[in-house]
Amino acid sequence: xxxxxxxxxxxxxxxxxxxxxxxxxxxxxxxxxxxxxxxxxxxxxxxxxxxxxxxxxxxxxxxxxxxxxxxxxxxxxxxxxxxxxxxxxxxxxxxxxxxxxxxxxxxxxxxxxxxxxxxxx
Length: 121
Description:
- The protein is mostly helical and 121 residues long.
- It is built from five helices and no strands.
- Helix 1 crosses helix 4.
- The longest helix has 26 residues, at 22-47.
- The radius of gyration is 16 Å and the shape is globular.
- It starts with a helix and ends with a helix.
């Protein structure tokens, strides 16, 4: 999955609002989507019989990792890189840009929903 197009489509969405930082909002959407996908992997492993959570002594170890990961993703997408990606993204046909907007929502929601379904006994 190409997170750069998810990032840019989210960036363009939040760029319409004056009171929000589109770069930070897109960074959080990409980071949380990656966390949900990672959590889905753990839940799927637990479902087939390998409990990863048993090896983690405290579930709160994830909390300090999340801001660090968000900062890393924020550093990856610098202003220069965003400008290059915007030029490339704007050259796409309209249906391709709408496709990436839908993918960005699905990349955020699908792992979360699948995780919930897998956790139901």
